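name: query_chain
kind: protein
chains: 1
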Amino acid sequence: MEKIYTKEEIRSMKRGPSLFPPIIVNFLSGRTMIFHDKEGGSVRITEDVTPEDSSYIWVRLEEHREAQPFTGGKTFDIPSSKGSSYTVILHSHNNSWTCSCPGFGFRRRCRHVDEAKLQLKNC
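structure:
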């Protein structure tokens, strides 16, 4: 019998770089998460797994290639809606913003960056 992964198991999987985020497909045989890492693959998942859960295992390939250590800039700890917080960074070398939240990885923008910009403006 094929293993069906839970929300917690998906969130604890090893992260890997790929061009595209994992996608969730509802087949007649059950829900499946398809991911595009170097091996490619898919896993069966429970009904409660969301796209946000699947984003925990994805690292945008461009970020993986261009990852640079933090060399300066301003950091902000912005609370998440679930009680923890995310780190938002204004990078001084290219004046760009990044956030550690999963949504930023998908959309390249998020409310945490907007809140950090507002805090910076109000200083």
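note: Strands lie at 4-5, 16-18, 23-27, 30-35, 41-45, 58-60, 73-79, 85-91, 96-99.
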